Amino acid sequence: xxxKEPRVIAEIGCNHKGDMEIAKELIHTAKIFAKVDVVKFxxxxxxxxxxxxxxxxxxxxxxxxxxxxxTYRKHRQFLEFNFEQHKELMDYCDEIDIEYSTSVxxxxxAKGIAELNPxxxxxxxxxxxxxxxxDWLCENYEGEIHVSTGMTTKDEIEEIVNLFIDKxxxxxxxxxxxxxxxxxxxxxxxxxxxxxxxxxxENKVKEIGFSGHHRGIAIDVAAYTLGASTVERHYTLDRxxxxxxxxxxxxxxxxxxxxxxxxxxxxxxxxxxxxILEIEKVQxxxxxxxxxxxE
Length: 295
Hints:
Layout: E1 7-13, H1 20-32, E2 38-43, H2 54-57, H3 72-79, H4 83-96, E3 99-104, H5 107-116, E4 120-123, H6 131-140, E5 144-148, H7 154-166, E6 173-178, H8 192-201, E7 207-212, H9 218-225, E8 230-234, H10 252-268, H11 278-287
């Protein structure tokens, strides 16, 4: 059976540097040049976000060269788009015909983005055990819900899937193999986890995906052949820009090659429809040794 056609998500995240024009340029380049399917941003509610301890939040950025503010809180505020800006980005995506999405990091962000009604919302690995947020999305948001599984135990993954089953939303769940490192060494990518996710959940969820933080694009093709039909990669216009995610991101040409290679792989993953293909027949006539000619 032929695999699903690959879907490529360009994870812009906060690589727009807090600038709407850069954000739109990233969208436009992803659509026109790289020809990917989806662009994805991030949304945090800075006032309620609890990823870090308060003393960390109000201290300088741990890597000052990447900071956009005097404290980590101010850094995050500088990079954050409000809901009106996300609506503007979604409208721009609609205008040029590319799908918009966002990762939500907390319940207020989930509620605000759900009001925009995108076709999919992503739950990052750091937040996939926020069951209050997952529960709310299952009950109030009708689109696809994508969940990454970095930093997550097998038991936690089972609990996440069971929540979606209990809410009768598992057929809208896309479950991603992911390793949370920036970048991830090849030896830690753990691609065979895709095989395990498929064996356990393929008939329970909508789809298995792959969210990669490695270098290059060869690994993504392998992930696709193992059954991850949605592939997500971080994306930037310039890997030397200030910020923690740029160095682990693909630039436009890398993103374009990723889309090209995944489509070529999709086209090639077939069986022959006859013993000798049309393209082979002329070569067989010219080159093939015919038995009996020298007997």
